Amino acid sequence: MASKPPTDLETVLNSEIKEWHFHIYFHQRNASEHHAALELRDAVLRLRRDGAFVAVPLFRVNTEPIGPHPVGSYEIWVPAETFSAVFSYLCMNRGQLSILVHPLTRDQRRYDFVLLPRTPSDHEIRNAWIGPPFPLDLETLPVRSAEVPLQYSTLKLGYSATQSPFSLEERRRLGANIEAILSREKEAARAPPRE
């Protein structure tokens, strides 16, 4: 039986995903796809330079399958602070390319041992696709990392951010204000009463 999703504000905020990977896929022997993937990468780099969002493509572009990725690919690291802007841009401008989106947590892939519960994983349960999905070779990944894989901590974003944009009390006030405003909207669902 599925467990109830958590609704305790502090628990939810403490488990929030702070960093993401976007893997842009291209068939490595398809010159037009390879070119389109590199054009998209250059566009992301120009937009980052100009301040549209924070997104860090790795320097390396994989021209052959590597790790779990079955075709040519490259990775773009994105902190939660600009996830929406990058997701939106890639949705609108990916052309025919497929993009794997997954969070960065300790859980790389699912495990299912007799004594341990089945755990969610970044690459197979918590992932999303922009465009058609590709099959992944998950055996190349560890089940669980020792720590959350921090990237680009010098940017002080994502898991390396030094402060939250809102305190718990500020979030509660914001939520109460939104509920009050939406109480006048006929089509908006109401939050259930507090338990």
Automatic annotation (TrEMBL):
InterPro entries: DOPA-like_sf, DOPA_dioxygen. It comes from the Eukaryota. This is DOPA-like domain-containing protein. It comes from Collybia nuda. The lineage of its organism: Eukaryota, Fungi, Dikarya, Basidiomycota, Agaricomycotina.
